[in-house]
Every structure is written in structure tokens, then in C-alpha cells.
Fold each of these.
Amino acid sequence: MSVTRRVSAAARRWWPQGCAVVLGLCAGLLYTALTDRVYTAQAYVVVVADAPSSIEQTTKFAQAFTKIATQPAIVGAALRPGLAARTVGELQRTVRVSASPDAPMISLAASAPDAAQAAGQANALAQALITYAGARATDTGVRIANLSQALAPEEPSGPDALINLTVGGAAGLLLGGLFYLVTPPARQGRDKGAARDEPAARSRERSRKRPVGA
């Protein structure tokens, strides 16, 4: 079989998979183009003890404050004019709070369509948490201090074009593979039919070539 025939046969066999992958990549590009840009800013606070204390104790308090940082009482105190989030629920959905496992430090990340708004939301939540901890310092023996304010990010955190292209291409490849799994029975049936007809065809060919009267 010539190279041209092999290429043609491969194209006829694999064109559904190729089309599915191309469509998936196009879908990923379209999603990236139509999705609004999202910016993420991070603020950092640290738990400090009023009296000499071990780092293990302040670290435990940092983890405790992390668990309650998105409670309505704290998030509601962070709401202010100029933020992208207008309600407690909106701000809760746009912030992520995490604590360091080996240090009394808390990270507060906030996302918004605008870089300055993302930084403002992170700083507002950090200040609300500082105020909340300060009001209870007499009972807990610890306070929260501002370690690093959030700055407006220069680049958006999403959407990620590479991830969207990868997901789209993988989805197209999966659909193409499913199509390939569905279609082999028909091809196999044709191949078996051709295999059954081949001996008869050879017999007819030999009959035609046999000399008259042989």
C-alpha cells in the first residue's frame, strides 16, 4: 500500500476523533474569551499572645480563627462601600482563608473582577478579623496583628487559557474515543464479510484463467 493510500485510510478512520479534539479546543478558547477576568489578592495576619506563650499555642489559635473567619459576624463587619461584594453571601463566596500548619499566620485571599477591589476585600476581611480577635483578647489572651496588606495584583488569576484548552481537548478526545468504541462492530462486520467472499473470488478468478477443455 502506498503512503498516500495509508494516509487516506488513516484519515478516513480517525477523522471523527480529530474533529472532536478540534471542537474541544475551540470550546476551550471560546470559554476563555467569554469568561470575565478574575483578580485575586492576599493579605496576611499573625496571631500574637499578650503574655509569653509557645508558638504551638498561638498556632492553634490561628487555626481556630481561620475556621471562624468567614462567619457572618466577621464577614458582615468587613462589608463597606466600594467593595465588589455587596452582601455577606457574596463576600463569603469570594474569599478563602487558610492557616499555616507550623506558624501562627493566617492568609486571607479575596477575588473580584477588579484588581483594586480584590485587594480591598482581602484587607477589609483582615481588619474585621483583627477587630474581632481584639474584642476577645481578655478571654483568649491573644490578638491578631496585621502582617502584610493585600496589594492590587497586576495579572488576573483566571480564567487560565492553558487549563481550558487542556480540558477542552481532553473532552474532545474522550468523545472521539467513545465514537470509535461504538463504530468498530460495523467495520468488523464488513471485514468478516470481505474475508468470507475472498475464497469465492479467488475460485472464480482461477476458473476464468483455466484453459478451455482442461
Amino acid sequence: MTLPAINALVDVVLMDGEAYQSRVEDMTGKRLTVAAPFGVNGADMPKLGTSVELAWVAGDRRQAVDVRLVELSKEQPPRWSLEAVSAVRLQTRRNYVRGGGGENVEVGKDGTVFRGRVIDLSEGGVRCRLHEDRFERDDRVDLRIALDDETIAIRGTVLFVRRDPENDAFDVIITYETSEHMGRAIRGYVLRREMEERRRARESVANAG
């Protein structure tokens, strides 16, 4: 898989999870010049050195690469210079960005609260591990999930329960519908976690060398 060609339409995904449309204007090696993404306001403008994600469609597959912002041009129209810092990968995400894991979660049912850990989550649902066998498909539950310094509270529906005998626990999948604000918070959190994990992995490889 290769980087997008000149004139390819791309999405620039910032750390908060918001995607902005752009186009590749030039490319030399691992450095791409793209038109300043449409709709980014001053408050959301990333600083030089910030890692973002570049995503595009090649054929019928969506691909992505991690890039670092290395230059902001002052010419008109303005452009961003981005340097690829990872290999190109297929985006296997379905409807939502999914990730995370390890966050504290509280699941409330009929006035009783059960505490567990998140396995992964997205804007559309969460998979969590609990030690109590108290849930059935289609149960309506109240969720509280801790994301960094923010806790989200949302009403959801149990989709699936699976016993995990190795951990003497139960994996519970709960779906929900989010507001735009809450969806953006979850999406941004998951992408930040994903970028941070890839950064640590690159640093680990570099230190090992």
C-alpha cells in the first residue's frame, strides 16, 4: 500500500476525532503537501509537531497513515506539510472508531450498580467485563464510563452476554445512541488513545535499536 497520489481527496483527522476534507497538492518521499483542511478554526488548529491521521479511499478500501504536521505555509491558499510516520494501513473500522480498554465502567440495572472494566468502546456501544451474571439480552441499563478526566453517562441496551471462564467473569456488549457532543468526546478519546499507543510502540522500537 502506498501514500495517496497528488490530487487525491483525503480526510485529515485531528486529535479530537474530527475529520476535515482536503486534497494532496504535492508529494516528495514521505512528505505530503495538502490544502489546509476545510473548516478547521483557529482554536482547533494543531501545533507544529502534532500527530494527526490522514485517511483516503483507494479502490474500494479505506486506508490511513499517521502523519506529523511539519510546516504551515503562509501562501494563499494556505497549505499543510505532513510527514508520514507510520506504514499505510487498512482501516477496518466499521461504523465507528473503536478502541480504548481498561477504563472503569459502572452498569446500573434495577437500582443496583455493577462495576467492571471496559474491553473496548465506540460511539455506538461498549464491551465490558463484569464479575456478576446479572444481565440478559435486551436489558435496559444505565452506564457511566470514565474517559480521562470526563465521565459519560448514557442509557443503553444489552446486546450480548458471554461467559469468560478463564477470568471467572462475563463479557457484556451494550449498545447505545449518543448525542453529537458525546459521540465526539468518545471518538476523540479513542483516537487519542490509539495515537498514544502507536507513539509508544515506535519509541519502544527505536529504544530497542
Amino acid sequence: MGTTAAEHLRTLTPERRPGIPDTMAGTLRLDAYQDGWTEHWYLTVADQRIEVSRSADDADLVVRAHRSVFDRLAAGELRASAAMLRNDLTVQGDMRLFVVLRRVFPGPGDARHPREAARQLAAESATGREARG
């Protein structure tokens, strides 16, 4: 496995992230539990920027998972939405902020956006029709 979630979060810089909508603002708390203790990370989102700190304060969205799940997210081995659907992580609060996790954790390196995959499939179909044509 590559980097851990803790290492990844420590290295996040507050530069603008164009993938975050301009109007999105709020707070997220990531609760990573393991062996009876919980590590808290607090993310503040505003103006397409993410500030990371350590706090157990209340947040608009709380994401809770085993530390290994967050480590897999940080390593790009797992997507947050897939982990949520499998009940590997739980969320409570303003789900609009869940999209921020896609900008915090990279996701699998070989993953493609669904629209990109659909465009490629459509182009391959069109090429096949022209060849038969």
C-alpha cells in the first residue's frame, strides 16, 4: 500500500480545486477508528479550497470508517462512493459535501469518468458502423 490517509491529509495544500463548485462551503469531519480509538480530521471547504486540521468538533458532514478504509482511499485503491455503498464507511449530515471526498482522495489510477467511458464506447461503435458501411 502507498501512503496512509494521515500522511495524505497532512500534505494537502490549500490551493484552489476547480472540481469543487464555487458555491460549495461547509465542514467535514473524518473519523478513522481502529483498536478502540478514533482519529479525527477536520476539513473546512470554502472558495474552492480545503483547509485540513485536527479536531473532533461538530461538522456539516461526518464520515466514519475503519482506518484501513481511509488508507485505501488515500492509496487510490477505493472510491468513497463505492465504500459507502458497501457500508464500509458511513456518512451523516449534508450529503452535498460528500463530493469533496473525490477531490481529497484520488481514487483508482485506472478509473475513468463515466462520461469519458461512454464517449469512447460511442466512438468505437461509430467506427465499427463505418467499417461495415
Amino acid sequence: MAKEVARSGGHDPARMRASDADRQVVVERLKAALDEGRLSLHEYDDRVKQTYVAATYADLQPLVSDLPAPGLSAADVEGRRRADLRRQARRLPTALSVLWIIWGSLMAVNLVAWVLVAARADEDVYPWPVWLLLPGVALLVTTLGVQAVRRGKMQE
């Protein structure tokens, strides 16, 4: 019986019971929001009452979900949002990352093989790894195109 109770309630954090310390953290965050002028005294009072009545994390979360972290201005929040969008736009899609890894590995193996052959040969050896630059250039053009499209979509 005890195992069934632990199994059923232990997986969903939102349904977990909140402690007095959890409620106090929310009250302190509400107080910071009041001090910064984000909440009126009436809103603060209502939310504090709801905080002390809250039984679970799911009850506590809505009380602070519309508040930024203490000390952040609207400009800070907007700056972080824009930075996250720029970071997301710069990140390569997984498929392109895999293709770059494959191309780099093939290029490295071919260069090492060519250097070893050239070092052992008595005459000049044709630099066949140069031909791998063609797919590399195609991959670069594709990557730049994908990034340009993603940047355009992020700015819309």
C-alpha cells in the first residue's frame, strides 16, 4: 500500500505538497514585487493570502508566474528574450551539425592518409583531399542559407 501511494504521487511535481519554507519563498518574491511597484498593495495582500492557503506547488506557481525575477527591469527581461532568440537562431539544426561532423571527420582522415602517403613517396603525390572542399563549400552555403532563413523568421 505504501509503495502504491509513493508511486502515484511521487512523479508529478505540481501535485507535490508545498512546505512552509516553499510558501515563505513565494511570499518573499511577492514582497520584492511589491517593493519594485509590480504589484499594488491589494494584489500583494490577495496573493499572500492565497500563498498561505496553497497546498501544492501547482497552487503556488500561478501566484508568481507573471512576475520576473526580483531586480529585473522590463528592459532586462526584453534584453534576455532577444538574447535567447539570437542564441537560438545561431544554433545549428541537428542535421547540419551531424553533416559538419561527418565532413570534418572525412576531411581529417583523408588529410592524414595523404600526409602519410606523401611522406613515404619518392615523388609528388596528387593532393586528393582538395576534392573534399567541394562538398564542404556546398555544406557551408547550405548552412549560411539555413541560418539566414532562421534569422529572418526570428525577426518577424
